[in-house]
TrEMBL record:
Name of the molecule in the record: Uncharacterized protein
Domain of life: Bacteria
Signal peptide extent: 1-19
Gene source species: Maritimibacter alkaliphilus HTCC2654
Alphabetical keyword list: Signal
Length: 150
């Protein structure tokens, strides 16, 4: 019986060590809001012709997850999309990167930093006009949308 008690005691001591490895971050939907949007279009040869629609897509995705959107200077953070693509062999190839940028304090100074980042490579797409909305929606839902409300 003493062996059982010792074993139970050892397993109880090990559990807090596992909990320390869980991801902990300070982000909530409330403290990243309102979120602005910006993009860089480095696509060539007609690979992305609907760039002007990206802000509306981002707004709908963010608001669909309960995250406030702004087009003004009052943004606490900015969702930034970078598209780099060129046409070769009839299709477009390249990459897309999306990040959430915000101010942090570093060495006593406020600086803009990337808080979260995701990306994707693509090949053989006729156009990215259908790919970009899927990318924005996926990143907002699977990453920012999982933040707690408060």
């Amino acid at each position: 019986m003493k062996i059982v008690l010792i074993f139970a005691g050892l397993t109880a001591l090990a559990l807090p060590a596992f909990a320390q490895n869980e991801e902990v971050h300070p982000y909530t939907k409330a403290n990243i809001s309102p979120v602005g949007f910006s993009y860089e279009d480095a696509a060539e040869d007609g690979c992305w012709t609907s760039a002007a629609e990206a802000a509306g897509i981002a707004k709908a995705a963010l608001e669909g997850q309960g995250i406030a959107f702004t087009e003004g200077d009052d943004a606490k953070t900015t969702l930034h999309l970078f598209i780099d693509a060129e046409r070769s062999g009839g299709g477009c190839y390249g990459n897309a990167r999306m990040d959430l940028r915000g101010m942090i304090e570093w060495d006593g100074q406020p600086i803009m930093a990337v808080l979260r980042e995701a990306g994707a490579n693509f090949i053989g797409q006729q156009s990215l006009n259908g790919v970009v909305p899927i990318l924005i929606d996926h990143i907002v839902k699977s990453d920012l949308g999982t933040f707690p409300d408060e």
